[in-house]
């Protein structure tokens, strides 16, 4: 007797959220995205706005706005390092990219399939993303070379060292090879913990469900209740601080897991 009203209320609340979020999303897409594209034109993309180039500020604002459309109340601890730095984060869902872009425009390493995703793929391609064809050794070699080149140019690069999204209930092992570019370029590695919900209680809700594709996850998250989301920019690992890439990978993962458990 008591369970039926709860279920009904759940769907009523979700329907209500769709009714106001979908129009909000459409305005954000059809008005906001053209403005972001305009900000990337060479004529003025380097104009300073609040201490940042115009295109970077536009991407930050647009990404932060998209997170608000999805009901995420974002907070941050720590700050991303300037210049050449390898940012490494746990990977939960497609929205992780927008979380980091809301704080810093950075070139991501992402699977090539993302380029075909609606909206996110469009913005990723224009946000200096390095696309990797998984399982292709030649592609990986090219990605590693591009990452090292950008780091040597003092441009930040971000990557998800788990290599794929997971169910949200654990942080998988970090692949050590991806840290080679930071070792060779002699730049710091900064771990970033992405936490959804209080004490990471919403990681599994944000993550892709079994058999769920991008569009399904996108639409489901659009109807989810408002919740907190935190980015923790953690203590960086300085060049030469550890003996090799495997130790760097293990320490970066350890710091992220500790931050999520706090």
From TrEMBL:
What the entry lists under CDD domains is as follows:
LPLAT_AGPAT-like (cd07989)
Residues spanning the membrane: 20-38
Q: Which SUPFAM superfamilies match?
A: Glycerol-3-phosphate (1)-acyltransferase
The GO annotation for biological process reads: phosphatidic acid biosynthetic process
Q: Which residues form the Phospholipid/glycerol acyltransferase domain?
A: 85-197
Q: What span is annotated as the signal peptide, if there is one?
A: none
Q: Which pathway does this chain act in?
A: Lipid metabolism
Q: Does the keyword Protein biosynthesis apply?
A: no
Record-level Gene Ontology MF annotations: 1-acylglycerol-3-phosphate O-acyltransferase activity
Q: Which UniProt keywords apply?
A: Acyltransferase, Lipid biosynthesis, Lipid metabolism, Membrane, Transferase, Transmembrane, Transmembrane helix
PANTHER family, sorted: 1-ACYL-SN-GLYCEROL-3-PHOSPHATE ACYLTRANSFERASE, 1-ACYL-SN-GLYCEROL-3-PHOSPHATE ACYLTRANSFERASE-RELATED
Protein name as it appears in the record: 1-acyl-sn-glycerol-3-phosphate acyltransferase
Query: Native species of this protein?
Result: Stenotrophomonas koreensis
